[in-house]
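Lab notebook page, bench 4
Experiment: in silico fold of construct C2
Operator: M.H.
Input chain length: 343 residues
Purpose: comparison with the prior construct
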Amino acid sequence: MAEPKTYSERLGAISEEQFAAALARLDLGAFVSAAPTTSGLFGQNVFLTSAKGEFVLRGAPHWVRGPTDSAYRPQDRWQFTKEGYFVDALHEKTNTPVPWPYLRDEASDIFGWPYAIMPRMPGDCFSDRSILKALPEEDRAGVAQALGAMLVEMQTLTSPFAGDLDVDTIELTPYPGGGTRRVVDEMTKIAAESAALMDADHAWMARIARDALAAPTPANTYRHVDYKLNNLTVLKDESGWRVSGLFDFHEASFGDGALDLVRQACAYLDTQPPLARVFIDAYRARAPRREDLDALMPLYVVNDRLKIWDYFKRPGAPPLLPKDETFREWAGRYHDAVLSLVG
């Protein structure tokens, strides 16, 4: 067989013998070929072709760094167990197209880390920029409608409480204080550690947090938390565009599903502003009517935008954010736009 090949910096060099061993262990057929994926921030995925079909191998799980940890834990089971949990639940209880079965091997003897293998989903995966060149305007609008409709279908998966799989017990565990408190605490923690915020930014976020915490507790549904074009596939058939695959469940949890409107809506505001309304209108036409979004959506928008701001304000990050604006000035445009669309 060929010499080991590096498919990403994270995964390192992998031989065809290793791929063949993993496929054989999970009874997925003889190895035919492997290829790097075209998207994915963390470089965890490789496309595999076997005698039984097309698959995605996902390796090198995100590690957990505890108080005494300074390095990667090769036996970490949390990420892939969590992803498998949500894939199974969505497959069994909704019509969401997910990569099922999501097969996991917790041993590290083949690659040096645990891995998962799942079916490769049909259709095309676009980024917010690539879709502008790949599809005409009418089709881009059809994709936006499909994204809004699929969000409603995903949220038919519900939970009696807001929560996530705990990193220690790897069991679904309620958030202390509930889902809204969790989003507030996350925002507060990022803000406290960021050096790129002004006093007025902190005061603005504190007011938004108070309003959200005073709102009624929303229903707890499935939340992808990173719902965007890069994390799904779409295809067009005789009935129009539809989401044909959803993946990357690393951030998934239960809480207020309206949070999942934010990331893709903001991406549309950056690249195709009219489609932000198409996307949100498609969602709202199918979702239960709500009166609490005026209080909760500001929190969801600011929480999401703060993650982007903090990342690109770190030393060495690409200079993609305006230098002469405060966080409130920059994020405020998204805040106002999204609130006008859901109001």
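Observations: The chain has a mean pLDDT of 94. The chain has ten helices and 13 strands.
Next step: discuss at group meeting.
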